[in-house]
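task queued by scheduler; priority normal; single chain, no ligands, no partner chains; default sampling; output format set to structure tokens
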Amino acid sequence: MTGRALAERRPWLLASLVFGISYWFIAGGPVPGLYQIAWKGAGVGLLAVYAWLHHPSRGAHRIALVMALGALGDMVLEVAFTAGAAAFFTGHLVAIALYLRHGRGRAVRPLDKGIAIALVVGVPVLAWLLPTDRAMAMQVGLYALPLGGMAAAAWLSAFPRGRVGAGALLFVASDLLIFARMGPLATSALPHLLIWPLYYFGQFLICTGVIATLRREGEFSAE
């Protein structure tokens, strides 16, 4: 789809890309704090609007809720880390329910089951190991339980792994970099460079992948 077609048929997606990509450049810059927080939330928030307004189905509204909780978490994290994490925690639970509702059934291969188990176990363990502060390590380890579950459920779902599964893995990588910034990568520039693009494009792939699949399955007609 050309940029012009995207602007005409998917204005909310185009607006999301504009805010999501540009935030990487303005983060920590001269833009006043409240405006910067709103700018941060707009990227994924507009994905929620896209899913909710243009696709009248229960599945689309569920992924819209996941995106809305992500956008809320993006903004609240800037002022209250625990409250922001709680929004993401809730979003992971909603996403798990959506993915389980659209499972692959008996089509799941043993290798994919192994990958899912590795995500369920490995993500919270790695999250717990990364922070230097042991009290914080316990908190992020608990948070990472549904994070790993979300990625595993996405991987085992009927949604395309190249979009939804990959998007969930990008989300996990972004969060693990946040936790690594509390420990071994505390002085590294790598988290600052990668956390936002991994997270935003992960959410973008998840949202568009779910919507494309629901449309193909006939939950609603294309615009």
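post-processing summary
- The mean pLDDT is 91.
- The chain has nine helices and no strands.
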